[in-house]
Amino acid sequence: MANNNHTCSLRGGKEDSRGALVVLEGLDRCGKTTQSTRLVANLEKLGHSAELWRFPDRTTSVGQMISSYLSNKSQLDDHTIHLLFSANRWEKRSLMESKLKSGITLVVDRYSYSGVAFSSAKGLDISWCKAPEIGLLAPDLVVYLDIPPELLKEEATEVRDMSSLSFKRRLAKTIRSSVVPLGRS
């Protein structure tokens, strides 16, 4: 993901300033949606234009294929589903860029970091996982909600083996060691 040099609307009050791209990441059921919703509401109260976005975006054709996989209606190889998740972000890139340029702050519940972390925790090579993300919009801020897997709410998970505590521990370790540092570069 490229580094963007710009002035975000959260820092400057000019009408022509760019909106901020804020990403919330973390394990399933850690509170990303709740915190993202609260952040958008608070930004709007402060007079900022803000929108909540979620990935995967199941409204697109690629998103519908992902939804079918997540609800166990289709079987896909780990490489294939990783590329579909990435394609889902790519198909929204132009719209995201347009909204940011118009001064709208986008608060995103999951982004590239989740895709890389999930696939890497499933055993795919992390360098391979990062490759399709190159060129996506770089966030201005990434917030990682670091909740121990043992404290997460029980869930009726959609995906096969990704609800197990051992997978959640592996995923948390992957995020902390390999993915969170990406947001610092």
From TrEMBL:
GO molecular function, one term: ATP binding
Taxonomy, superkingdom: Eukaryota
InterPro entries, per database record: P-loop_NTPase, Thymidylate_kin-like_dom, Thymidylate_kin_CS, Thymidylate_kinase
Pathway terms, separated by semicolons: Pyrimidine metabolism; dTTP biosynthesis
Signal peptide span: none
Gene3D superfamilies listed in its UniProt record: P-loop containing nucleotide triphosphate hydrolases (3.40.50.300)
Enzyme Commission number(s) of this protein: 2.7.4.9
Keyword field: ATP-binding, Kinase, Nucleotide biosynthesis, Nucleotide-binding, Transferase
All residue ranges annotated as the Thymidylate kinase-like domain in the record: 24-158
Transmembrane feature ranges: none
Record-stated family: Belongs to the thymidylate kinase family.
Protein name in UniProt: Thymidylate kinase
